[in-house]
Design goal:
The chain has 611 residues and is of the alpha+beta class. A hairpin with a 4-residue loop joins strand 4 and strand 5. The chain has three domains: 70 residues, no CATH class; 151 residues; 292 residues, no CATH class. Strands 11, 12, 13, 14, 15, 16, 17, 20 and 21 form a nine-stranded antiparallel beta sheet that branches. Helices cover 26% and strands 26% of the residues. This is DUF8094 domain-containing protein. Keywords: Membrane, Transmembrane, Transmembrane helix.
């Protein structure tokens, strides 16, 4: 019976091990599914549509091959179509009938050329067609990659995301395109079968040895046999000579020991190999309560909450804004360090651009002047994109200084005028130390734009600069004084009536000081908050004139104004202008709250002799 059990164990072990190995070999499903195509024509742009990317579940691995520098980017489909505009491009989509990729030529209206160096027509004098724009570096992309000839990347694109393929906008886009999706080809019972078979094999060996031992012990007569007649004794056979162990030759000894070693080692190696072959996670069932998190190569978009699908999408996504701010921080740091104002227009405009341009000019003649407040790249404490599917688009973000927590957070107001233009900093405002930022909508929803002349706030945004300027000039005598939280305002004490009188006292009695202010050229930006209020950024210019009152001259010591104007003494006087970038919270109409100053930037932008 023991031999029967051993044989059954051996057979069962062989079947289990064979089945486990077969699951990882002959029965193993493919690890991925893919679609491939070759794009016809020599178009400079190819768009892989969202339905092609989501034809199968899972992350998409895109492999493209072309000639030259291959470019790949992915972004929201609507943004990509807006960037392409009236350009011609090839669209790759998924054909449900054939289960393959299909291509379609989308013809544009503009006369663009594939040759950026094409000269004008010498006969007619007509200018050459405008070269196609280069898609590299656009702020509309969630991410982008470049490589020589071929490129392969994995993304996790949900619906509403497309991929753009190109070179530089002039040469043909890559032609060979392959999209693959991972498949779950795990075999959770392969490991248990192999290991269980190995264990059963050991049990069979134990049963077999037990049966052998039992059989040897049970040899011999089982009952008394009656005695018969005595047989004559036979002559004794000569005893064989005993061979001692030390008399065995080396070859014989190795052969004997080798056979015994192999007999012991072979089963161990076989069983160990089978056990180790099932160590992979795909060999075993997942018994965890929650699936382990898998890192995605690229961030996914956050879906719009239920009931808000009718709202316009936010101007940017969080990953998109992170890339934009990093680029801005690089440009700002390089320009501030080298005082190269030519780098600024790529990423700065309006009051923020003018502040830095004039700061570099002042520092060239007055090194004691402080550099502009640095623009950190991360982390972003507040992300408030405008709800807008068209252009121009606006985003407000508050960025902390990761390197130095003692530096006040920086608030950036970014603006993108058109799909092919990048975001520029319209306002760069240092947040006040005691400022309390109002509660705003999450970045996945965004904030509605507020009309400059709205009546639903305690003060219309387009009146805010004038009203605040009046408070600066008149203090409590201003008709707008009670609208503002002056007790918590840290800027009015620096530029208000008391500060002006202190400056007058420092000047000689023979010099008159006149101050005034007016709204600056910066655009008023207003985005709604959750409590129906608004965050408003405005620009206020403060003018100051120092003139002699005795017919003499006014002499200036080394100062930012002297560096900017180049005037050392004058009989006519000197006028200077300072630009204020101001960020307010304006409560809803009927609220008991007052308008709060959240942050400000105060900088000299002009100084000259009075004509």
């Amino acid at each position: 019976m023991r031999f029967v059990l051993a044989i059954v164990a051996f057979v069962a072990a062989a079947c289990m091990i064979a089945l486990g190995i077969a699951q990882r070999t002959v029965f193993l499903e493919p690890a991925s599914v893919s679609l491939s195509t070759t794009v016809a024509g020599n178009g400079p742009y190819t768009v892989i549509d969202s339905d092609a990317l989501t034809a199968h579940e899972g992350a998409q691995t895109l492999t493209v091959r072309g000639s030259g520098d291959t470019f790949m980017a992915y972004g929201r489909t609507a943004d990509m179509e807006a960037w392409l505009g009236d350009l011609s491009y090839t669209r790759l989509s998924y054909d449900e009938d054939t289960k393959e990729l299909s291509s379609e030529l989308v013809r544009g209206q503009s006369e663009f050329t594939n040759d950026a160096s094409q000269p004008s027509d010498p006969q007619t004098g007509a200018e050459a067609a405008t070269p196609n724009p280069n898609p590299r570096g656009s702020d509309l992309w969630l991410d982008e990659w470049t490589s020589e000839n071929s490129l392969s990347n994995t993304i996790n694109a949900p619906e509403g995301i497309s991929v753009l393929l190109a070179t530089d906008g002039t040469a043909p886009a890559p032609k060979n395109v392959r999209i693959s999706w991972p498949l779950d080809n795990s075999t959770p019972w392969a490991g248990p079968l192999i290991v269980g078979g190995a264990i059963l094999l050991l049990i069979g060996l134990v049963l077999y040895l037990w049966a052998l031992i039992h059989m040897r012990r049970s040899r011999g007569p089982r009952r008394n046999v009656p005695k018969g007649p005595r047989m004559p004794k036979l002559p004794k056979a000569p005893k064989p000579k005993m061979i001692k162990i030390n008399e065995i030759t080396g070859g014989q000894r190795k052969a004997i020991s080798g056979r015994s070693s192999r007999l012991a080692v072979v089963p161990v190696l076989v069983i160990s190999g089978l056990v180790l072959s099932g160590c992979s996670a795909s060999f075993w069932p997942d018994l965890s309560e929650t699936p382990s998190a898998t890192a995605t190569p690229t961030p996914e978009l956050t879906d719009t909450p239920e009931g808000l699908d009718e709202l316009p999408p936010p101007a940017v996504t969080v990953p998109q804004l992170e890339r934009i701010v990093r680029k801005i921080a690089v440009v700002a740091n390089e320009a501030d360090t080298s005082m190269n104002a030519e780098l600024l227009p790529a990423r700065f405009t309006g009051p923020a651009l003018l502040e830095r341009q004039k700061n570099y000019q002042i520092r060239a003649g007055y090194p004691e002047q402080a550099a502009p407040s640095p623009i950190p790249a991360s982390p972003m404490e507040v992300i408030l994109p405008q709800q807008n599917a068209t252009w121009p688009r606006t985003v407000v973000t508050v960025i902390l200084n990761e390197d130095d927590p003692t530096i006040a957070p920086m608030t950036l107001v970014l603006k993108q005028n058109s799909p092919r233009e990048n975001y520029q900093v319209e306002y760069a405002i240092t947040l006040a130390a005691d400022a309390t930022f109002p509660e705003v909508a999450p970045a996945s929803i965004g904030a509605p734009p507020v009309a400059p002349d709205t009546k639903f706030l305690t003060l219309a945004p387009d009146q805010l600069a004038t009203a605040y300027g009046d408070v600066i000039l008149k203090d409590t005598a201003s008709e707008y004084y009670d609208l503002f939280d002056i007790a918590g305002d840290s800027f009015v004490p620096q530029v208000g009536v008391a500060a002006t009188e202190a400056r007058r006292a420092e000047l000689p009695p023979t010099t008159n000081l006149e101050v005034s202010n007016a709204p600056g050229p910066g655009e008023t930006v207003a985005l709604g908050t959750i409590d129906s209020g608004a965050i408003v950024a405005v620009n206020l210019n403060q003018m100051e004139s120092a003139t002699p009152n005795d017919g003499g001259t006014v002499e200036f010591k080394a100062s930012p104004a002297k560096s900017l104007s180049g005037v050392e003494k004058t009989a006519k006087g000197v006028t200077s202008t300072r630009s204020d970038q101001l960020l307010f919270y304006v409560p809803a109409a009927g609220s008991d709250e007052k308008i709060r100053l959240l942050g400000f930037a105060h900088s000299l932008i002009a100084a000259s002799e009075i004509p």
